[in-house]
Every structure is written in C-alpha cells, then in structure tokens.
TrEMBL record:
<dbReference type="GO" id="GO:0008237">
    <property type="term" value="F:metallopeptidase activity"/>
</dbReference>
<feature type="binding site">
    <location>
        <position position="288"/>
    </location>
    <ligand>
        <name>Zn(2+) 1</name>
    </ligand>
</feature>
<feature type="binding site">
    <location>
        <position position="133"/>
    </location>
    <ligand>
        <name>substrate</name>
    </ligand>
</feature>
<dbReference type="InterPro" id="IPR006680">
    <property type="entry name" value="Amidohydro-rel"/>
</dbReference>
<keyword id="KW-0378">Hydrolase</keyword>
<dbReference type="InterPro" id="IPR050378">
    <property type="entry name" value="Metallo-dep_Hydrolases_sf"/>
</dbReference>
<dbReference type="GO" id="GO:0046872">
    <property type="term" value="F:metal ion binding"/>
</dbReference>
<feature type="binding site">
    <location>
        <position position="198"/>
    </location>
    <ligand>
        <name>Zn(2+) 2</name>
    </ligand>
</feature>
<protein>
    <recommendedName>
        <fullName>Isoaspartyl dipeptidase</fullName>
        <ecNumber>3.4.19.-</ecNumber>
    </recommendedName>
</protein>
<comment type="similarity">
    <text>Belongs to the peptidase M38 family.</text>
</comment>
<feature type="binding site">
    <location>
        <position position="166"/>
    </location>
    <ligand>
        <name>substrate</name>
    </ligand>
</feature>
<keyword id="KW-0645">Protease</keyword>
<feature type="binding site">
    <location>
        <position position="102"/>
    </location>
    <ligand>
        <name>substrate</name>
    </ligand>
</feature>
<feature type="binding site">
    <location>
        <position position="227"/>
    </location>
    <ligand>
        <name>Zn(2+) 2</name>
    </ligand>
</feature>
<dbReference type="InterPro" id="IPR011059">
    <property type="entry name" value="Metal-dep_hydrolase_composite"/>
</dbReference>
<feature type="domain" description="Amidohydrolase-related">
    <location>
        <begin position="267"/>
        <end position="377"/>
    </location>
</feature>
<keyword id="KW-0479">Metal-binding</keyword>
Length: 382
C-alpha cells in the first residue's frame, strides 16, 4: 500500500509551499508541488489523505529521554515512572535517544534496551546511550566499544556528568580516553560517536571539555553537552563554548522553581544564542523527559523534584515561533534537524525524498498537533 498525503503546506524544514507527499515502505518516495503537471494519482493501491493545506513539519528528534524513568535522589519514593507509549506518540517526538542518568544501579542498560525496543514496536524510532553519570561506564557487553559496535540501538556514550556533585568527577585523561573509545567504535559501526554530557552547575562549567580538546586530538564537536540553560552563568559559558566550535543543547523541561533560581527558558536560550551569532547547526533542544528535575539546598541536600515532560519539546518549538518571532525553519532546526545531524541519523529531521516519513500535521488555527506520522504510519490523531 502506498500512501498519498495531498495538499500539505510543507516545511522540510525550509518552506516548500503546497505539495503532495507520496510515502512508500516507510519513506518519502516523492514530493510534488501541487501545480506540477506530473501529479501522483490515487488508485486501489493508494491510501489517500487530504491535509487541506495544513502545515507539515518533520517529526521531532529528542537526544535525551529517560524512557525507563529516573530520580531516586530523594529515596525510592522519588523514582520517576517510565515513559508511556501513548504519551510518546502524542508528543510529536518520533525519534528518541534513551539514557540512564544518575541511577545505574536499580536501572540497567538491559532495561534501557528493552524499553527502546518496546517503543519501537509501537512505531517510534529509538536509540540509546551506553554508560551513565558515573565512571567506569556501565555496559551490556563489558565495554563502551562493544556496546556501540555490536548493538544497533547504542549510538554513543552518555549521560556522562561533569561539574556536578552526583558525577564521578572525571579527570581530563578519563574523558579523553572515553571520547576516543567512543569515536573509534562509532567509526567501526558507521555511527556518529557523540559523547552526551550532563553539565551541572558546579564551578568549572564546560571547562573539562575544553581541557580535552586542548590536550588531545578530540574535537569539541565530539561532545554534546546538555542543560546549558540551567543557570545564567552556565548559559554565558555555553555561548563562549559555542563560539569556540562546541555544540549546545538546551533543556525544554522545567519547573517554576528552576526558573526562579535563574534557569533561562529554552526558547529564549535558542533566540539569544542565535542573536549571539552561534552557528545555528550547533544548537539543539532535548526534553530530559521522565528524568527527575531535582532541587538541592545551598548545602547540596535534596529538596524535591518533578519529572521532565516529552511534550515540552513541541511546546518550546511553538514558543520559539510565537513568542520570539523565529522563522519556523530555524525553530525546526533546533528541535529536529540539528540533533539528527549531530547523532548521525541521516534519514531523520528533514523531509526529502528518501528520508523516513516521520512528520507532524499541525492544527490550522492553533499551535497544536493534529496528526503524527512515524515511518509512514499515522500513529496519533487528535
């Protein structure tokens, strides 16, 4: 069965105008302007949907989801739940990368891989990072290189924590060795080799990554540090890091308490980074969904938490457009295209012939999702 989506106002992310989209075998087989004389025709083997001029954008790509839950930093009663498939399908995120984070004792790489395959069976595209906050990394095969080389879903190392009291306080040598091991394994497996970094608010900020780049052949772009908008100080350090050639990932999940404590809202962070002339292709957004968003007092004691939300990525995309006047293609870049490129996912984050048919159909009169299509199948309809 072929699928024909007629009269789509396409943002691929660049605006393409009114088009017909032909889907075959989960991918885009043709994109034809509606005024083209060679229009695809319907027929008994074609499932036709008329989108009636509604906007169509690429499915969102989230480089950090704790889809088996997180937390526990205030005891077992504070563990956050797993991501539910129904919630994921309605969020607009069609590609998710899972991580362990703080807890690599009661949660394991095997749990993570199993959940990735559960979500994939529901229609989404899922990947994982091997390792966690702490060193040495927890793995399935016994090594970072083994996980990345032999397990298709494992595409990098993360979340390794720096400048955070919950991490292992890694030395420059440890970070360099792990980055080199990841880089080599990903070359062997044809993957991107990203080391995904949790950045805390302790003094030092992103300096550990600069130290690796200064004293080794590992480039700054090997790392994708997240939570760069958590504090005003870290955000300013991030802008310097971006000017030096590094990548910046802003977290969309937040709480009123975090904002009161000085967090820069993610949409504002993207707008300010673009105003600071940071290369747009180095700016990404992630949700930290189903992780704990903890608060600690001045002495580092746990003071409460809320879970991150997968829906916050689409909400932030809307804030970029409606509150900060950002062009839709620029905003889509931060929420989808740039993360796909950084993670080496060539068929994601962009709607073009040969790409996976992951797309969102937006509501006509509000910032909302009418339909989600993943790998050529409609998986959600409002």
């Amino acid at each position: 069965m072929l699928t024909l989506l007629k009269n789509a106002c396409l943002h691929a992310p660049e605006p393409r105008g009114l088009c017909h989209l032909l889907i075959a075998d989960g991918r885009l087989a043709a994109i034809v302007p509606t005024d083209d004389p060679d229009l695809p025709a319907g027929g008994p083997a074609v499932d036709v949907h008329d989108l009636e001029g509604r906007r169509v954008i690429p499915g969102l790509v989230d480089p950090l989801v704790h889809f088996i839950g997180g937390g526990g930093e205030g005891g077992f009663g504070t563990r956050t739940p797993e991501l539910a498939l129904d919630e994921a399908l309605a969020s607009g995120v069609t590609t998710l990368v899972g991580a362990l984070g703080t807890d690599a004792l009661t949660r394991t790489p095997a749990n993570l891989l199993g959940k990735a395959r559960e979500l994939a069976a529901g229609g989404l595209t899922t990947y994982c990072y091997t390792g966690s906050y702490q060193l040495p990394p927890v793995t399935l095969t016994g090594s970072v290189a083994g996980d990345i080389t032999f397990i298709p879903e494992f595409i990098g190392l993360g979340e390794v924590a720096i400048s955070d009291h919950r991490g292992s306080q890694p030395s420059r040598e440890e970070l360099t060795r792990l980055a080199a091991e990841t880089r080599t394994a990903d070359m062997l497996a044809g993957k991107a080799g990203i080391v995904f970094i949790h950045t805390g608010d302790a003094p030092g900020g992103l300096e550990p990554l600069r130290e690796v780049a200064r004293h080794s052949a590992i480039p700054l772009a090997q790392f994708l540090p997240t939570h760069i908008n958590r504090t005003a100080e870290l955000f300013e350090d991030g802008l310097r890091f971006g000017r030096e050639g590094g990548r910046l990932d802003f977290t969309t999940s937040t709480t009123p308490e975090l904002l009161t404590d000085g967090e820069v809202p993610a949409a504002r962070a993207v707008a300010r980074a673009l105003e600071a002339r940071i290369d747009a292709s180095r700016i990404t957004l992630s949700t930290d969904a189903n992780a704990s968003l903890p608060r600690f007092d001045a002495e580092g004691r746990f003071a409460g938490l809320q879970p991150g939300r997968l829906a916050s990525l689409f909400e932030t995309l809307g804030e970029c457009v409606t509150q900060h006047g950002m062009a839709l293609d620029k905003a889509i870049g931060a929420a989808s295209t740039h993360a796909a490129k950084a993670l080496g996912l060539a068929r994601k984050g962009r709607l073009r012939v040969g790409a996976d048919a992951d797309l969102l159909v937006l509501a006509e009169d509000a910032w909302a999702i009418d339909e989600v299509w993943a790998m050529g199948r409609r998986v959600y309809r409002a």
